[in-house]
């Protein structure tokens, strides 16, 4: 089961606005000749239901997830708002990755990074060549920059006495009032077996690099991508996630990232583009070895974004940082219909939602990313909305009264209460 940053059972998906089909001047029926055609796109989100292989295990209510998955803590807040059914509600529940901030101490999650290259094939499944070069989009050059980024490496932040990762710094800003100084939620990355996603002609389009090699970027049909990513059976060694599960590269106790090279998804046709990442979880049935608990493999698909494809600042780890931050605050994508469902909110970017997707609030806004130079590279992780923004809390009890972090000036006031579906 999975949640996409189309992003209830639900999934979060990050993607860029639709472009006119005429923007894709094609030399071949699926070759995009001008790699600059995506430069004017900006990010927004949608929701898609998770998928998986349920074993009939019911979702527990009132804060306990009866599942074999990562450790989380629960909380609640009171504020008047409209729920998903259009009813007035005052009591809201959340479920967050890690241990309660009041307890202090550091919680560290294994964070497998699974590099995934694209193998673009002909209609008959045979290898495809353009200009004598194989159509293989290689993720290898982006692995080390991702590991050196603030998502997985420590940097200095004003919410922590010691250097830490950006998502931990955001969480500490969010729980500033209640967290002990020793409270941290960290990721321990490790690169796992590289995987290859085979795509058949008709499900993708591509732009070549200036030297004629593959590829400046690849656009992939959303449904084809999802079917090649998530397992269709139990066990399933034919899909990217299925193979990683069978090999033991990812487990139910991990926060796993599937890293792709400039791989953006479209729906229907290439004019409806581009999804750059999503977070979700794959659901598999339990058995006697785990008490017959539903197994949840928490994961994200995130694309590395090379410079200037989507402009100068929406680049490198923007999508990955967005997805990891949302995983921390909404690990099971509001899938029980209770936890991380929020009052309806309306972002200045136009997004109208009712879930605790903290990246969706800020994507596409001015100063949406937070440039930070470390390890010899300037990265562009995304700023995130804080829980206080969703709570309509005024004043905010977050760090320095903030509603967004690391850049506190992106959101300077809480969301205003909204009618059902923001009145639409």
How would you briefly describe this protein structure?
By secondary structure, this protein is mainly beta.
Rg value: 21 Å
Number-wise, the strands total 25
Helix content: 10-25%
The first-to-last residue Cα distance is 29 Å
State the low-pLDDT regions, or none. 1-10, 15-27, 42-47, 54-64
Structural class: mainly beta
Strand content: 25-35%
Query: How many helix segments?
Result: 6
What is the residue-averaged pLDDT? 88
Number of domains: 1
Strand count, sense and barrel status of the largest sheet are: 12 strands, mixed
- Global morphology: globular
Protein architecture, described:
The chain is mostly beta strands and 424 residues long. The chain has one domain. The chain is built from six helices and 25 strands. The chain has helices at 143-147, 166-174, 222-229, 240-247, 318-329, 387-390; strands at 12-16, 26-28, 31-32, 43-47, 67-68, 72-82, 88-97, 106-121, 129-130, 133-134, 136-137, 184-191, 195-200, 204-208, 214-221, 255-261, 263-266, 273-284, 294-304, 341-346, 352-355, 372-374, 377-379, 384-385, 404-405. The strands form seven sheets. Strands 1, 5, 8, 11, 12, 13, 14, 15, 16, 17, 18 and 19 form a twelve-stranded mixed sheet that branches. A two-stranded antiparallel sheet has the order 2-3. Helix 2 packs across helix 5 (318-329). The protein is globular, with a radius of gyration of 21 Å. The model is unreliable at 1-10, 15-27, 42-47 and 54-64 (pLDDT under 50).
List the helices and strands and how they pair.
Elements: E1 12-16, E2 26-28, E3 31-32, E4 43-47, E5 67-68, E6 72-82, E7 88-97, E8 106-121, E9 129-130, E10 133-134, E11 136-137, H1 143-147, H2 166-174, E12 184-191, E13 195-200, E14 204-208, E15 214-221, H3 222-229, H4 240-247, E16 255-261, E17 263-266, E18 273-284, E19 294-304, H5 318-329, E20 341-346, E21 352-355, E22 372-374, E23 377-379, E24 384-385, H6 387-390, E25 404-405
Parallel strand pairs: 5-19, 8-12, 8-13, 8-16, 15-17, 16-19
Antiparallel strand pairs: 1-18, 2-3, 6-7, 8-11, 9-10, 14-15, 17-18, 18-19, 20-21, 22-23, 24-25
């Amino acid at each position: 089961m999975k949640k996409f940053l189309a992003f209830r059972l639900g999934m979060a998906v990050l993607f860029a606005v639709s472009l006119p089909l005429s923007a894709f001047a094609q030399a071949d029926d699926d070759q995009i000749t001008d790699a600059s055609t995506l430069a004017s796109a900006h990010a927004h989100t949608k929701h898609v239901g998770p998928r998986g292989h349920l074993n009939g295990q019911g979702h527990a209510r009132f804060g306990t997830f009866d599942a074999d998955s990562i450790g989380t803590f629960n909380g609640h807040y009171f504020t008047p708002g409209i729920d998903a059914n259009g009813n007035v509600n005052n009591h809201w529940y959340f479920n967050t990755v890690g241990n309660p901030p009041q307890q202090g101490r550091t919680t560290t999650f294994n964070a497998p990074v699974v590099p995934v290259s694209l193998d673009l094939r002909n209609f008959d499944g045979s290898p495809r060549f353009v200009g004598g070069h194989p159509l293989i989009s290689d993720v290898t050059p982006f692995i080390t920059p991702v590991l050196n980024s603030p998502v997985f490496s420590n940097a200095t932040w004003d919410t922590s006495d010691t250097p830490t990762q950006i998502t931990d710094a955001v969480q500490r800003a969010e729980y500033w009032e209640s967290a002990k100084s020793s409270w941290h939620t960290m990721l321990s990355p490790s690169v796992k077996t590289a995987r290859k996603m085979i795509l058949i002609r008709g499900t993708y389009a591509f732009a070549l690099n200036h030297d004629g090699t593959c590829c400046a970027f690849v656009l992939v049909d959303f449904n084809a991508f999802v079917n090649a990513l998530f397992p269709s059976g139990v066990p399933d060694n034919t899909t990217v996630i299925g193979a990683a599960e069978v090999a033991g590269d990812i487990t139910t106790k991990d926060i796993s990232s599937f890293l792709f090279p400039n791989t953006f998804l479209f729906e229907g046709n290439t004019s409806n583009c581009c999804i750059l990442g999503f977070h979700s979880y794959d659901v598999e049935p339990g058995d006697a070895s785990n008490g017959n608990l539903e197994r949840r493999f928490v994961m994200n698909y995130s694309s590395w974004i090379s410079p200037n494809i989507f402009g100068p600042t929406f680049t490198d780890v923007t999508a990955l940082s967005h997805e990891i931050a949302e995983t921390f605050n909404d690990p099971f994508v509001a899938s029980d219909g209770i936890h991380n469902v929020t009052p309806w909110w309306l972002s200045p970017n136009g997004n109208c939602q009712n879930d605790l997707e903290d990246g969706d609030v800020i994507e596409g806004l001015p100063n949406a990313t937070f440039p930070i130079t470390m390890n010899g590279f300037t990265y562009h992780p995304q700023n995130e909305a804080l829980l206080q923004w969703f709570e309509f809390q005024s004043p905010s009890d977050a760090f320095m009264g903030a509603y967004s972090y690391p850049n506190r000036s992106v959101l300077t006031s809480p969301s205003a209460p909204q009618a059902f579906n923001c009145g639409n």
